[in-house]
């Protein structure tokens, strides 16, 4: 009788890949986790209980067939494991690195609920796909038949690139327009290298280009080309711009020098540290934390990226202000722990009231908070504690308060593009169809600021809808 390769969670404990010590890793921008070895990946995959109703799969936005590729990994069938993983996820090596698994697949693992520690799904996913790249199993699109239809995609982030990949593999002619000089969106310039090394993104970009996707970079819609021009050149257009407008802070002194936006700070750091670009704002110190007392305002994943970047740049101190407590923080608990290990101090239940300084910011006026009654979302509402103000010294203040959509109808001279009251593009659920014929929208510009994995899901769903619409149009034309 064959030996049971799975269900070993009772005998084998959960084990993550080795994590570099905080003292070592805070000196560079390399990823902090080592790669699983083959034997360790198989061992950890074998802990899966092979549930009849896999909650890991149902809580994954892409509904990845996790139990199957864990089984294949445990039995040494890595190429098949990769094929299963790739069948539902355009960028599994990226999701394996940056998805908040503790809130999604791993956080809903059945053996975690029974007290045995979750399967290390993200680390195995990363191992499978990195192995696939090393062995040449990841290949560019090679459609059997080239189709005449053309699709223009505005935005080279995860949603736009996922749609581009799906459409190109179906033989559609695809052109991606992006305002930046490199494709990848926030994966390239927003997420630091210690979470996602840039070579991982660049090789995907190169693979898409090798498969026939055409990139038009340094191209801002509304400035270098009009939206109407793009529509006239393609049979369909997908809007995948993401949301880049930063939420702002008010209060006395809010316009002082030294108070910067998270997106500007992270972009400058990624350009300088990961690509070796010359960035004047970084070199002048404006967007560089070296030798400074840094205060980051916010509690999401972007705030975590900022505090950990500031540590690596050589800040003398890094503090994070968040108006709720640790349990109510929206960012990944794993990232919070990593930040604390690296020397970041979290000031829970605090919020900025204003800023002090003459020529430049010198301190944040902080007010202490307490949690009151739950709001409509069920989260306790922060309330001010009168008379609790104090000054927190700061040379650099980074605002990481989240992102909002830009006013696309105005920027693009297209008032007929319908948006919601939040400014996001109004689009049909799953298909991404908008109010304009042949125009679709996906990702954060529809959802608001969200996860990379949701953008990938939207891009894939939209590509399927575009292909169906092309098929319907062809059938009508043939009648």
UniProtKB/TrEMBL annotation:
Superkingdom to which the source organism belongs: Bacteria
Domain Dihydroprymidine dehydrogenase: 25-136
Ranges where the FAD/NAD(P)-binding domain occurs: 151-459
Keyword Metal-binding assigned: yes
SUPFAM superfamilies reported for this sequence: alpha-helical ferredoxin (SSF46548), Nucleotide-binding domain (SSF51971)
GO molecular function: 4 iron, 4 sulfur cluster binding; metal ion binding; oxidoreductase activity
One Pfam family recorded for the sequence: Fer4_20
Keywords: 4Fe-4S, Iron, Iron-sulfur, Metal-binding, Oxidoreductase
Cited PANTHER family: GLUTAMATE SYNTHASE [NADPH] SMALL CHAIN (PTHR42783), GLUTAMATE SYNTHASE [NADPH] SMALL CHAIN-RELATED (PTHR42783:SF3)
NCBIfam families, per the entry: gltD_gamma_fam (TIGR01318)
Protein's name in the database: Glutamate synthase (NADPH) small subunit
Source organism (scientific name): Salipiger marinus
């Amino acid at each position: 009788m064959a030996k049971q390769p799975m269900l070993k969670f009772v005998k084998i404990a959960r084990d993550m890949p080795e994590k570099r010590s905080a003292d070592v890793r805070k000196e560079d921008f390399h990823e902090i986790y080592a790669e699983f070895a083959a034997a360790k990946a198989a061992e950890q995959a074998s802990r899966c209980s092979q549930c009849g109703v896999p909650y890991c799969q149902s809580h994954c936005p892409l509904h990845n067939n996790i139990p199957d590729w864990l089984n294949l990994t445990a039995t040494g069938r890595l190429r098949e494991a990769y094929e299963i993983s790739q069948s539902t996820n355009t960028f599994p090596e990226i999701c394996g690195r940056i998805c908040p698994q503790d809130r999604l697949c791993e956080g809903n693992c059945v053996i975690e609920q029974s007290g045995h520690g979750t399967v290390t799904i993200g680390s195995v996913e990363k191992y499978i796909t990195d192995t696939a790249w090393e062995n040449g199993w990841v290949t560019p699109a090679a459609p059997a038949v080239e189709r005449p239809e053309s699709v223009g995609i505005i935005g080279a982030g995860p949603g736009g690139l996922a749609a581009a990949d799906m459409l190109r593999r179906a033989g559609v002619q695809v052109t991606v327009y992006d305002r930046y000089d490199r494709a990848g969106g926030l994966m390239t310039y927003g997420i630091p290298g210690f979470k996602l090394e840039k070579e991982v993104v660049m090789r995907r970009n190169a693979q898409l280009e090798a498969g026939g996707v055409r990139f038009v970079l340094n191209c801002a819609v509304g400035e270098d080309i009009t939206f109407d021009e793009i529509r006239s050149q393609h049979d369909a257009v997908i809007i995948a711009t993401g949301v880049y407008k930063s939420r702002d802070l008010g209060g006395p002194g809010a316009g002082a020098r030294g108070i910067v936006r998270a997106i500007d700070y992270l972009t400058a750091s990624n350009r300088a540290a990961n690509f070796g670009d010359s960035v004047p704002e970084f070199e002048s110190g404006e967007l560089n934390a070296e030798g400074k007392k840094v205060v980051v305002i916010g509690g999401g994943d972007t705030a975590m990226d900022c505090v950990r970047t500031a540590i690596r740049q050589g800040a003398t101190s890094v503090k994070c202000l968040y108006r709720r407590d640790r349990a109510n923080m929206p960012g990944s608990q794993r990232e919070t722990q990593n930040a604390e290990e690296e020397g970041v101090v979290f000031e829970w239940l605090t919020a900025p009231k204003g800023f002090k300084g003459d020529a430049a910011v010198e301190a944040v006026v902080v007010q202490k908070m307490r949690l009151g009654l739950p709001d409509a979302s069920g989260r306790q509402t922060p309330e001010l504690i009168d008379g609790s103000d104090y000054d927190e010294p700061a040379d650099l203040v980074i605002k990481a308060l989240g992102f909002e959509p830009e006013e696309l109808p105005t920027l693009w001279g297209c008032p007929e593009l319908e948006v919601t009251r939040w400014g996001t593009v109004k689009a049909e659920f799953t298909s991404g169809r908008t109010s304009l014929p042949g125009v679709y929208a996906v990702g954060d510009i529809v959802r608001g600021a969200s996860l990379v994995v949701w953008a990938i899901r939207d891009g894939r769903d939209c590509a399927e809808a575009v292909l169906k619409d092309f098929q319907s149009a062809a059938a009508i034309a043939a009648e």
